[in-house]
Structure to design on (91 residues):
């Protein structure tokens, strides 16, 4: 079972955990999106960013473009996390 939504990005910066369902978002695509969101949310203090931070608009655009596949991540859980991230980011 996935952790509650308020625990998706705990203080230890652990990656997000999603349930795997029969028809969900492509896991590799979601993992890449979550890594980009994590980097935008918690940039490394000693390193210059390799790419510009993910904006709210870009995160929502990428969410809408995710492929739905067999045995993918739960779409509701992924969407809630991305929408919560976007709500706190500039467009």
């Amino acid at each position: 079972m996935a952790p509650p939504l308020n625990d998706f990005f705990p203080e230890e910066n652990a990656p997000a955990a999603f349930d795997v369902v029969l028809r969900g978002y492509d896991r590799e695509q979601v993992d890449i999106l979550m890594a980009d969101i994590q980097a935008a949310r918690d940039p490394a203090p000693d390193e210059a960013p390799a790419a510009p931070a993910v904006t709210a608009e870009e995160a929502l655009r990428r969410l809408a473009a995710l492929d739905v596949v067999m045995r993918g991540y739960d779409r509701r859980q992924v969407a809630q996390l991305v929408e919560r991230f976007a709500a706190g980011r500039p467009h």
In short: The chain has a mean pLDDT of 82.
